[in-house]
């Protein structure tokens, strides 16, 4: 009985310790330069429906179902999706647009696990015909689920998807 109690307490202690040292937040972003003027690039990326043309997740499930609410390219627009295990189920809502600067949105995932992230796409002038696009998202890892992030590198995994998407965006806009 006493040994079992010590084992249970040790397991609880390990879980608490891991939750304390595990990352409490994440921030992933990638950038690319596109050989098009800033206004043209921003006018394309602020429309979430157009993200289907270059989204790495649309490639992972071309058969995912989507529905939309509101006016695309405006604050309050919501895109909902249901897909396979690679894309899950969730929604994205535009929360802020600063014309020719940034589009911010909230990502709400329902499956395979519940989470919420703040996403953004920014544009910066490199020169009159070149635009730097930065795409990213950030969020909070709540204990004890943050323990998972000791073994999962969000930056490496999602960053690779961002790089693929940005490369496709570049190809589309420069063609």
Automatic annotation (TrEMBL):
Keywords: Membrane, Transmembrane, Transmembrane helix. The chain crosses the membrane at residues 6-23. Pfam families: Polyketide_cyc2. InterPro entries: Polyketide_cyclase/dehydratase, START-like_dom_sf. The keyword Transcription regulation does not apply. It comes from the Bacteria. This is SRPBCC family protein.
């Amino acid at each position: 009985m006493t040994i079992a109690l010590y084992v249970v307490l040790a397991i609880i202690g390990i879980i608490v310790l891991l939750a304390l040292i595990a990352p409490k937040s994440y921030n992933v972003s990638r950038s690319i330069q596109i050989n098009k003027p800033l206004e043209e690039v921003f006018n394309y990326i602020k429309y979430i429906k157009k993200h289907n043309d270059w989204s790495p997740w649309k490639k992972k499930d071309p058969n995912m179902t989507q529905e939309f609410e509101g006016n695309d390219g405006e604050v309050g627009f919501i895109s909902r999706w249901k897909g396979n295990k690679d894309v899950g189920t969730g929604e994205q809502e535009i929360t802020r647009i600063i014309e020719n600067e940034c589009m911010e949105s909230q990502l709400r995932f329902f499956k395979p696990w519940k989470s919420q992230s703040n996403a953004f796409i920014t544009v910066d002038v490199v020169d009159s015909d070149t635009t730097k696009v930065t795409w990213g998202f950030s969020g909070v890892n709540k204990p004890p689920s943050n323990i998972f992030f000791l073994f999962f590198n969000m930056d490496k995994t999602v960053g690779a998807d961002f790089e693929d998407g940005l490369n496709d965006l570049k190809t589309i806009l420069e063609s």
